[in-house]
Amino acid sequence: MIKRLFRSKKNKVIGGVCGGIAEYLDADPVLIRLLWVIASLAWGAGIFAYLIAWIIMPEKDEKK
Fold it and tell me: Which among 4, 11, 38, 61 has most CB atoms closer than 10 A?
């Protein structure tokens, strides 16, 4: 089975992007969120990247 990247419905705080990445990488969602915030503060493009990922990533369908 091919592993796909989706926005998470159960690990969702704002858009589910970090939760989806955490599920894909089998990592803790809090760690992914923390890394995303650090990247946003350090380079400034993290907020824009999050919005783009929110638009592009499909939401996970729990029925499958």
Answer: 11
Tell me the C-alpha distance between 26 and 23, whole Å: 5
Residue 35 has pLDDT above 80, yes or no: yes
The residue range of the domain holding 48 is: 17-56
Look at the chain and report how many structural domains it folds into: 1
Residue 29 lies in a domain: yes
Asked whether the whole model's pTM tops 0.85, one would answer no
